[in-house]
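HUMAN:
Just now I want nothing more than another pair of eyes on a protein record. I would be glad if you read both lines and explained how they fit together. I have put the entry right below:
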Amino acid sequence: MTVVLEGAQNFRSLGGLPLRGGGTTTDGVLYRSDALSTLTDAGLTALGSSDIGAVVDLRTDAERAMAPDLLPDRPMRTVSLPLLEGAAPGLAQQIPAGTQISPEMIRQALAAMPALSDLYVSMLQGGGTSFAHIAQLVAGSAGSTEPAVLIHCTAGKDRTGVAVALILDVAGVERDAIVADYAVSETYLAGPFADRMLGMLEGYGVPLTPQVRELVTGTPASAIEHALAWIDDNGGSRGYLAGAGVGDATLDAVAERLTAG
């Protein structure tokens, strides 16, 4: 089934990715996206008729309140697993509306902004429980009439990118393909999403430097490669998730779900 969610800019299936041992990942098992708050009527209808049965939202409570997901009128499991702020909404959404921004506040905020590679390692260091829950959801998603899992945050590039890279690595997807899937988000986000997020920051008086543009809409391959290297240095994807409480049988089931068929 080909699913197109009109209104979501960074939505895609993770089927068809090459595996290290040959073959490709199974379609209709795992999807990724930006927030579902801007779905059109057609997009909402498509979501309702899709094979997606669980939606994992990695946004914070404040982000969800600001832009609630639009969900179809049918049973759909929703799981909230807040991670660290993603780079795209982090600066803008932590500034209350109407706040008078001073140049010093802007300077301090920019100075505190981490590089994407450092942000991703921070997510991994503090988000083991959330990533473990995602693995368990994917492993246990077989057997229902809507078995697929959709993972999203705000932009669908940072928190979602790390979560998806981890799951794909467990499944045995080729590293180059994991990196390429992460990196293509920049292309998907170009246009209305990027314009909206950059315009929001500019409205707060934030200078749109190359660093800011990369944090908000960029997906440089080096950032996810750094995160994957950190995972390798900490037991690999299976070892990392095992350390977060995921058993071997569940990890095997994740790989089977994404590679069977």
The first strand starts at residue 12 and ends at 13.
